[in-house]
Specification:
26% strand; 23% helix; 7 helices; alpha+beta; six-stranded mixed beta sheet; Deoxyribonuclease I, Chain A
């Protein structure tokens, strides 16, 4: 049976990752859909081989502020619909959202905010969470199939972070942030990696300055959440921990094609 392969990666700068063999990696993996976060670039900033990658159509959302945030979605098939905003447009200036409709599902590619800087940014993050949830729920309640992928900037449970006690009062592992992920699961959204893998030590982000990756002192903050009506289509979900070049690693999702 045909499959659809999705990859998701916070690249921490697409121009930087390009120098680490990014295109060779894409050619090897050859995903049907590739979602990137923290691209830190506009299409005009990029070389032609990256901007016009053979076999893909690409879509970009980037912020007003240069060299910051940004998301991009590459697809081997033209999406049926494309949005670069939630229905609430308050967050549009930071370029954090790409929503594409494909045959069989709606895909959210989202770079959720980081709340570590100060109380104002933490509030911004929580407001963003709430608006994202409202947008997703409008589609879920209509019975549509959803995939929400990206850097959520929050480790959900103690198993998802190497040092939970030390980070219990740090944004990224605060009770209010984790409670939002609890709410997703209460409404039926499935953390598909955890559906298949309950092992500890599975992370997607490591601090570069402290050499945390070599010691696997990490955080699992990159996710695919799906609606239950897609579960029967999923054949696998993995963390590609051996792929380097960013402070995050990619994650994969494999679906049976309708």
């Amino acid at each position: 049976m045909p499959i659809t392969k999705l990859l998701c990666w916070n690249v921490n700068g697409i121009r930087a990752i390009y120098k680490h063999g990014f295109l060779n990696w894409v050619n090897r993996e050859y995903p049907d859909i590739l979602c990137l976060q923290e691209t830190k670039a506009t299409p005009d900033d990029l070389s032609l081989d990256l901007r016009l990658h053979p076999g893909y159509v690409d879509f970009w959302n980037y912020p007003v502020k240069k060299g910051y945030a940004g998301v991009a979605t590459f697809s081997r098939q033209e999406p049926l619909e494309i949005r670069t905003s939630f229905e609430n447009t308050k967050f549009d200036p930071e370029g954090r959202v790409l929503i594409t409709k494909h045959k069989g599902f709606i895909l959210y590619n989202v770079y959720f905010p980081n709340g570590k800087k100060n109380a104002e940014r933490l509030k911004y993050k929580m407001d963003f969470y709430d608006v994202a949830f409202e947008d997703m729920e409008k589609h879920r309640l209509k019975g549509e199939k959803l995939i929400i992928c990206g850097d959520y900037n929050t480790a959900h449970n103690e198993i998802d972070i190497a040092r939970p006690k030390e980070n219990s009062k740090i944004s990224g592992f605060l009770p209010m942030e984790r409670a939002w992920l609890d709410t997703l699961e209460t409404r039926g959204y499935i953390d598909i990696f955890r559906h298949f893998n309950s092992e500890p030590g599975q992370y997607t982000f490591w601090d570069v300055k402290t050499g945390a990756r070599e010691r696997n002192i990490g955080w699992r903050i990159d996710y695919y959440f799906i609606t239950p009506n897609l579960l029967s289509k999923v054949t696998g979900a993995e963390i590609l921990k051996d792929v380097t070049g960013s402070d995050h690693c990619p994650i994969s999702l494999i679906l049976k094609t309708e």
